[in-house]
Write a structure and sequence with these properties.
832 residues, alpha/beta, seven-stranded parallel sheet, 31 helices, 20 strands, 50% helix
Length: 832
């Protein structure tokens, strides 16, 4: 995930004793180079030849190097031993997948399942004890396993909060597998992040394979755009790439090597350089350009293999995004299922809004247009025209003329879209004034009942775009029908399939723009965003349903027999009311259809965590911190970091405040040998920053948004967590504003009904970064005095899992921390 010298050295197992010292850096680089040479020599001959072809016209060192390696390989290799893994002049690892593979026969494997779920569970526990010498019995996990199974068996929904250390994954996978095999019925597990999907694939499923009494089938299925389309990639690499940028050719070369290694064809396995994501988009699998069984690559297709495995699987692991894409596609993507587990469920409502809404960016429309008329042979219409002009018959020439007549209209659409984007940006900048969000973006909500002045003029430009695009789509549709009749004769099948996909994209963008500009649905909130630096080219138009709970009920809670919602953070003040309302579960026709359970924590938080609140700490007036607050924060963080020797994570809610704190804190801690890392300053990558933090024994890490959850730093690397501000969402974001209005219209208080519960759940996620194992111990400092000064502050503290909470003056903070950290470990160590 990083090309920094220290990371690459560590990945290769190369010693790099003194990073940033010239001699040590040079030696590490030389050793990496030798490893790369050896690796290059091991590549299949066809891969080296392909890479050599990509850089045949590159006069630089890289071009020279790959040509020399090709010559060397050709001289050394009389017989290519890798030829058995070649297909259509590519080295590819995967064997053909077979549609003949039988599904599980009714009753197959049931004899090994015993007479009851209890029996299987006891067997699994015994296996765990045999495999793990340090096996710990977890009461909360045992309760979860039984609750999930009972909900499946009784056809009920379950909302279950299970904190860190419970072992949630095993808690739902074990009963899901048993229920699926026993009843010959698929169970779907959905996660919010691809990371958790991968964790289930790499850690939890192999463990279950060892302890489950009968063989089972589990598959991972991601959104289609995560898989490589081999046909598109072949077409791209076979095309003349000399005119493409060096970055694009490097990406193609990187993927040629990867193709000889990958089993899944999944973009998560690749680390792209500049323009890599752009290149991937042109070769990713998609339904509109798929030839299915007519494709020469069909039997090796990564996406169809994953779909086939899902059809055979007992348990299918997917993600929330694909779950909603499947719901919108009338359940044509996932195999039929009636029992679902939603992990990381606190994100479910937010993901629903994004996927059930509409989004259009400046470049999404521009890129689609460019794929059609790009002026070299990589454009779809020029590529098609090139094939047609080689035919000398009259019809082919007529078609060439029809394509030529489309170019000016496409360019007019591009010019009109440029004009509309710039005008929308000007309107956005004018109305936003100096107000920018935390990511330096202008944001403007557009209301259907009172649009900004001049909106009608912009609707006129959109109307021109709509009319022209409709004309283009009609002409392309007519031509495509004519071309289909001669596709085999002219060898047009592949290019016509890709063209069909682009036409569908163009149609979707046209309709999205119309939906946004006309704002006819009052159940949606409409807004636009842009960056002042990139202006109209960074424009993004968004339309999101204000309340998605009726859709969640329709697609899941009324359509499925049993849905398990689980997360470490679902309750607020020990109540599930907020989550129930978000998911629409409060309005289910059967009141007893839902059960809610809050599991006890497996950790002794009273002994493992101390929460300190400096009660006299300055407060923040409004949304920005004044110099008094920043100065006090820097001074306190410096003193605490000295007391803890670094090992400290500081959570901010604002990028701006993080940057204001970073430089003075770094300067003050430098003489003490304590390093400061800042998110978005030292690196934008969360995984890179986490790794750097763990490698440096004296370090303070300043993080925002993404560090509040999903970061796992167990052990001594983290001893102190500082929460600078309670994590309230910005109240003026269009979606938050629209939801607040919606709640007000029901005569309820939006702050208590929405803002506080959202912030409490985020706060609990942040708190969860500190204690990750039964032996972790540390301090949480809350610098936001609202937690004790306000009526709603109690909801934050009461929602925590029982740590020791003390408030004191700021000057008492460091002595209390020293006292706590210096306490005799024997006082709090627990027996496993």
């Amino acid at each position: 995930p990083s090309l920094q010298l220290s990371f690459v050295s560590a990945a290769f197992g190369i010693e790099h004793e003194r990073p940033h010292q010239a001699d040590s850096d040079a030696l590490a680089t030389a050793r990496i180079w030798l490893k790369c040479l050896k690796r290059f020599e091991q590549l299949p001959l066809i891969t080296v030849q392909r890479i050599s072809h990509l850089f045949a016209h590159n006069g630089g060192d890289l071009g020279w190097f790959v040509q020399e390696m090709r010559r060397r390989k050709e001289l050394q290799t009389g017989l290519d031993l890798d030829a058995g893994n070649y297909f259509r002049q590519f080295a590819i690892r995967v064997e053909d997948w077979s549609e003949e593979q039988p599904a599980r026969s009714p009753g197959d494997g049931l004899s090994g399942l015993g007479s009851s779920f209890e029996e299987v569970y006891e067997q699994a526990k015994l296996s765990l004890q045999e495999h793990f010498a340090q096996f710990e019995h977890r009461t909360a996990q045992e309760q979860m396993i039984r609750e999930v199974y009972e909900s499946f068996a009784q056809g009920k929904h379950l909302m279950i909060e299970a904190g860190t250390g419970t072992g949630k994954s095993l808690g739902y996978l074990l009963p899901a597998l048993y229920y699926s095999i026993r009843n010959d019925e698929k169970v779907v597990v959905s996660t919010h992040t691809i990371n958790l999907q991968e964790q289930l694939r790499q850690r939890d499923l192999p463990l279950l394979n060892r302890i489950f009494p009968v063989p089972f089938r589990a598959s991972i299925l991601k959104g289609r755009n995560h898989y490589l389309c081999l046909r598109k990639f072949e077409q791209k690499v076979n095309a003349e790439l000399a005119e493409e940028s060096v970055e694009e050719r490097l990406t193609a070369a990187q993927m040629l090597v990867w193709l000889g290694e990958t089993e899944n064809g999944d973009d998560e396995e690749l680390h792209f350089g500049p323009k890599g994501n752009e290149f991937w988009h042109t070769v990713a699998s998609d339904s509109d350009s798929c030839l299915n069984r007519a494709c020469p690559w069909f039997k090796k297709c990564f996406y169809h293999r994953a779909r086939h495995e899902a059809n055979l699987a007992d348990v299918i692991i997917t993600n929330h995004s694909l779950l909603f894409t499947d719901a919108k596609a009338e359940n044509r993507l996932l195999p039929a299922y009636s029992r679902l587990v939603v992990d990381e469920a606190h994100h479910f409502e937010e993901v629903a809004g994004k996927h059930l809404g509409i989004n259009l960016t400046y470049f999404s429309l521009v890129n689609t247009l460019a794929w059609l008329y790009k002026d070299n042979r990589s454009g779809q219409l020029p590529g098609l025209r090139f094939r047609l002009q080689t035919k000398e018959d009259e019809k082919a020439q007529e078609w060439c003329g029809a394509i030529d007549r489309l170019y000016p209209i496409l360019i007019e659409v591009k010019e009109e879209w440029d004009k509309l984007s710039e005008l929308l940006y000007e309107m956005l900048a004018q109305h936003a004034g100096n107000a920018q969000n935390d990511f330096n973006q202008y944001v403007l909500r557009v209301k259907p009942d009172s649009p900004p002045s001049g909106w009608e003029t912009l609707q006129g430009i959109e109307d021109n775009i709509y009319v022209r695009l409709t004309d283009i789509l009609k002409q392309l549709d007519r031509l495509a029908n004519e071309w289909k009749e001669v596709q085999e004769e002219y060898d047009l099948q592949s290019v016509l399939t890709d063209l069909g996909g682009t036409v569908k994209d163009l149609c979707a963008h046209r309709d999205a723009l119309r939906f946004f500009m006309n704002m006819q649905d009052d159940n949606y909130v409409y807004w636009m965003e842009a960056n002042p630096q990139y202006k109209g080219k960074s424009l993004e138009l968004a339309c999101v349903p204000i309340d998605v709970s009726p859709m969640l009920r329709q697609y899941f809670f009324e359509a499925k027999d049993s849905v398990i919602m689980t997360s470490a953070t679902l309750s607020v003040n020990k109540s599930f009311q907020y989550a129930c309302e978000q998911f629409g579960l409060h309005a289910l026709p059967e009141p007893d259809k839902l059960k809610t359970v809050q599991l006890p924590s497996p950790f002794n938080y009273r002994r493992q965590a101390l929460v300190c609140i400096p009660r006299d700490f300055p407060s923040v007036k409004g949304t920005t911190a004044d110099s008094l607050f920043i100065d006090s924060l820097v001074t306190s963080l410096k003193q605490v970091a000295e007391a803890t020797g670094g090992r400290m994570l500081v959570l901010f809610t604002s990028n701006r405040m993080l940057r204001q704190t970073y430089s003075p804190l770094k300067e003050q801690l430098h003489p003490h040998g304590i390093h400061v890392l800042g998110q978005g300053i030292d690196s934008g990558s969360r995984s890179n920053l986490t790794r750097l933090f763990q490698q440096n024994s004296s370090c303070v890490l300043l993080g925002t948004s993404s560090f509040w959850e999903g970061v796992d730093i167990p052990g001594d690397a983290l001893s102190c967590l500082a929460i600078v501000r309670l994590p309230f969402q910005p109240p003026h974001h269009p979606l938050a504003e629209a939801k607040a209005e919606y709640i007000k219209n029901r005569n309820e208080n939006p702050f208590m009904k929405l803002s506080v519960p959202q912030a409490v759940i985020r706060f609990k996620q942040g708190f969860g970064r500190l204690v990750r194992t039964a032996s972790d111990r540390g301090i949480v400092i809350i610098y936001d005095t609202r937690v004790i000064d306000t009526q709603y502050g109690k909801y934050f503290l009461y929602s925590l899992p029982g740590p020791k909470i003390e408030h004191m003056s700021t000057r008492q903070l460091v002595p209390r921390i020293r006292e706590w950290l210096g306490a005799d470990h024997s006082e709090w160590e627990m027996k496993p």
